[in-house]
């Protein structure tokens, strides 16, 4: 049941992404490179959170779809740039060659730039087309802040600076709050804004998103130690090899596993306030904690 | 007289850029890297065009300032990424070491990403703060389109693909229309929108901007052949060494010089319609054609 609903939502989002990337312009190779990474098998977690949060507060998911797609474009750009030789130098992502392995480094940089820019283009068009301009702008502000220097990019810089260094719990938390947590939170909050939620509801869902964002990252670190390469589609133990501090290296494996459980329980407790409507998000929250890839 | 007015405008813009980049957050090195390239001696041509176009149509330049600054952030990000080893591999820009020479490649990629993202953050904040939200969104749409896959990034990809190849006049023009022309045009058009211009006026200024954008790029190619390295702050003949097609290689030097004159004259004829108010932009247009750096 949950699987079917999730699959339907992913298909809905993939259709949206497909339409937005069905661009007939030159140079073709740029659009190929953009599409390659967007359709390289992502789990669509952020856009699913975005439309589900919109639906949870009683909104129409069609209003949130362009926002959800823009978030996925921005997320994909960040993966392309993270994988570059000058950054994590990864050859595989989701079991496929990374963008720069297929298109070369220069085009990978530009395809990433183009996806970031296109995310904002989609949001601005949506705002100009809509009667609901103010909500779209507020959602865009959340996303822009989460993606930028105060969010994802700041976290990525801290990650770079932390290589081969022992970092404190506080620094580790700062890094992941920014690098992964911020955009996950923005996905949930932007969805709630698009659904017309009031400030109190937005605050609740923002707290919910903080819990799942942190749980998601800790789970990622656990999978890097315990995961199955064939399921993950990437090399395990890469954090260790790259000299990266992770929740597992700082807290230990057992404490990390407990933390995922605690954070997931806290997240679900917040969803209790929303009654039956929150069944899907509750299942998704558990699915995120239990995933093996 | 023109020099004094230009200097005053540049100072006005630099103050705006300074305030927007006066950010007290971690990680400091990211903000240092962003500031380094923004304050590495740019001519501020695009933001000057933006506020001047706003003033020309009777607007208040304070309304256009955040838009002008966002354009300069986006322009600066494009320079940082263009200079990367995987792209043009330039060590010097405006007589100073390029961003990746100072901060390393990874941080240069991220500082560029951060400036692109921050440009949109500034625009969105401005739209949310302002009574004039619709105009800011329209200006933002122009900028986003000009900076993205259909504009600057598309042009840069064509540039990459053209290395060590003979390209046609048409391909050369496509490349520069997109790579340089689009953002120059967006600067003028966005300024006019912020000044409250009607559609007919915007169309006129858009034509004006097309002429100066093309003249600007041809002049750039001429300077790469005839320029003085100490004034340019970069190596000349780099296009030739990189096997790049330029207006000089395609049209020859004499024809290129004539083209700059013709395009400049056409641009100034459009400004004639605006009477005395257009004196500054006329001088700026001549200054762009006569510049030696």
Question: Can you tell me about this structure?
Answer:
- Chains A, B: This is Farnesyl diphosphate synthase.
- Chains A, B: Keywords: Isoprene biosynthesis, Magnesium, Metal-binding, Transferase.
- Chains A, B: Belongs to the FPP/GGPP synthase family.
- Chains A, B: One of its GO terms (biological process) is terpenoid biosynthetic process.
- The structure is a homodimer.
- With about 290 residues, chain A is an all-alpha fold.
- Chain A has one domain: Farnesyl Diphosphate Synthase, CATH 1.10.600.10.
- Chain A contains 15 helices and 2 strands.
- A two-stranded antiparallel ribbon of chain A has the order 1-2.
- In chain A, strand 1 (about 90-95) and strand 2 (about 95) form a beta hairpin.
- The longest helix of chain A has 28 residues, at about 200-225.
- Chain A is globular and about 50 Å long.
- In chain A, about 55% of the residues are buried.
- The model of chain A has no long low-confidence stretch (mean pLDDT about 95).
- The interface between A and B is large, with 51 and 51 residues.
